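Hi Y.,

Following your request, here is the sequence exactly as I used it, all 174 residues.
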Amino acid sequence: MKTLDSKKLYQNPWVTLREDIVDTGVSSPSLFAVVEITPGVVVLPVDAQNHVILVREYRYAVAKYTEEAVNGGIESDEWPKDAARRELMEEAGLSSQYWTFFGESNPGTSFVKAPMYLFAAEKVEKTQTHERLLSEKKIIRMKLDDFLDSILATRIDHTLTGLIGLMYWARHRV
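Below is the corresponding structure, written out as tokens. Let me know if you'd prefer a different format.
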């Protein structure tokens, strides 16, 4: 494959949209749309009682509230694990000394480049911010089994939350 032409159509600090004309070597040149998203992290917080803590946020693109694992972008001068720690504190008011790195995932690879680093934070410790977010219903706490049932029934439909939930379950099942 060879890129013959590339045009940047849109850019903001988090997203770039470009249009490429590519010689695939199979037929006449093909047109590809590519969305590049700033690399990010997804963190599944699990407390000592084996409950999962999820963030409840309104997502404009799907026009609804979703329950999802903690997630956010990596700053330009930040390592993925440092971003994971920061996001865990910012979004859920939690900290942890026990981290598992599950790897990197690129959801939507047909036209989206969005590298996401997947972590679990176990035995999370609460802060006053956590208690406030919980009382405001901006975060929810549920048993691991209920979380997995919600993924399988697609009540939790945030793809990376489902993926990290299943990865966590596969690694910890007895």
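The first strand starts at residue 2 and ends at 11.

Thanks again,
Q.
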